[in-house]
């Protein structure tokens, strides 16, 4: 008699999702900075338009606002928003094989149990159903991260996390495979935004609802001297000739299908018509 597999370890809690919701509500009150979200939503609509497939029931998972859901509602008969629970280890309210499309824009980077959420979406998709998601990742806000670390090391003798950790492209592809998606594809787009100074960038992050929600964040406000030195370092290291600073945003795209017998199959090992050695020899110089 075989023994059941041991229970998987709970995902580490990196993000305070209750605080995230509060920050997102504050962003709405401030008048949200939506330029990045609007660009990603437009890209998502364009990518779906290139898919030769009719979808009948879809969900929009946790995308801020209603722009994506409304944009896709014109094409999909039943399109509804769905929020990730504050405790994202809780199950999503989705029946198995109940949807044929799941989309999400700029939300999954704040999910603690991302492998679990992706697995739930995979189970909720009908055979040959599609997941299309965009999340912040890679080297996003690397300039701000480096500037804060240098300023705190200089003034306070140590550094605390101010920018969330982000998945890279390879991690994203591995998560799709781990969740059981077929034909997984990942790519990324780097968007560089310029600001007058670091404080203008930080104001935009507040209006995006994207400020620090790490559980291990420093609970006290940053010192004025540290903030001023951070802004100075930022300008010294990451400014263009006109004095404006650069801020990097990397958007990682994830696409995967629920397995279905009709999908293309990978070639059997050894069935390729050309050897790798031959391909290397034919590589143009």
How would you characterize this protein structure?
This protein is an alpha/beta fold. It has a single domain, classed as Rossmann fold (3-Layer(aba) Sandwich), CATH 3.40.50. It is 36% helix and 20% strand. The chain has nine helices and six strands. It has helices at 17-30, 35-49, 67-73, 114-124, 142-155, 169-178, 198-208, 224-238, 276-281, and strands at residues 57-61, 78-82, 99-105, 125-137, 182-195, 245-257. The protein has a six-stranded mixed β-sheet, with helices on both faces. α2 packs parallel to α3. The longest helix is centred in the N-terminal third of the chain and has 15 residues, at 35-49. The protein is elongated and about 60 Å long.
How would you summarize the topology of this molecule?
Layout: H1 17-30, H2 35-49, E1 57-61, H3 67-73, E2 78-82, E3 99-105, H4 114-124, E4 125-137, H5 142-155, H6 169-178, E5 182-195, H7 198-208, H8 224-238, E6 245-257, H9 276-281
Parallel strand pairs: 1-2, 1-3, 3-4
Antiparallel strand pairs: 4-6, 5-6
């Amino acid at each position: 008699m075989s023994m059941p597999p041991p229970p998987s370890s709970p995902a580490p809690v990196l993000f305070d999702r209750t605080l995230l919701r509060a920050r997102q509500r504050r962003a709405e009150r401030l008048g949200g900075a939506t330029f990045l979200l609007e660009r990603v939503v437009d890209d998502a609509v364009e990518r779906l338009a290139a898919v030769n497939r009719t979808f009948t029931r879809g969900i929009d998972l946790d995308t801020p606002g209603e722009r994506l859901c409304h944009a896709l509602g014109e094409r999909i008969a039943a399109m509804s928003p769905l929020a990730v629970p504050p405790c994202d280890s809780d199950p999503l309210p989705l029946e198995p094989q109940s949807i044929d499309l799941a989309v999400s824009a700029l939300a999954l980077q704040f999910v603690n149990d991302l492998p679990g959420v992706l697995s739930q979406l995979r189970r909720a998709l009908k055979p040959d159903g599609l997941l299309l998601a965009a999340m912040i990742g890679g080297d996003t806000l690397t300039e701000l991260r480096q500037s804060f670390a240098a300023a705190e090391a200089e003034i306070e003798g140590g550094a605390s996390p101010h920018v969330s950790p982000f998945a890279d492209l390879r991690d994203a592809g591995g998560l799709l495979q781990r969740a059981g998606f077929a034909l997984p594809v990942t790519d990324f787009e780097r968007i560089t935004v310029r600001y007058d100074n670091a404080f203008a960038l930080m104001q935009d992050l507040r209006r995006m609802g994207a400020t620090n929600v790490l559980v291990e964040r420093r609970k006290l406000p940053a010192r004025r001297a540290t903030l001023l030195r951070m802004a100075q370092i930022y300008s010294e290291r990451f400014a263009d000739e006109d004095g404006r600073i650069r801020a990097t945003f990397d958007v990682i795209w994830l696409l995967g299908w629920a397995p279905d017998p009709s999908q293309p199959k990978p070639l059997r090992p050894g069935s390729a018509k050309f050897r790798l050695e031959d391909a290397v020899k034919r590589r143009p110089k």
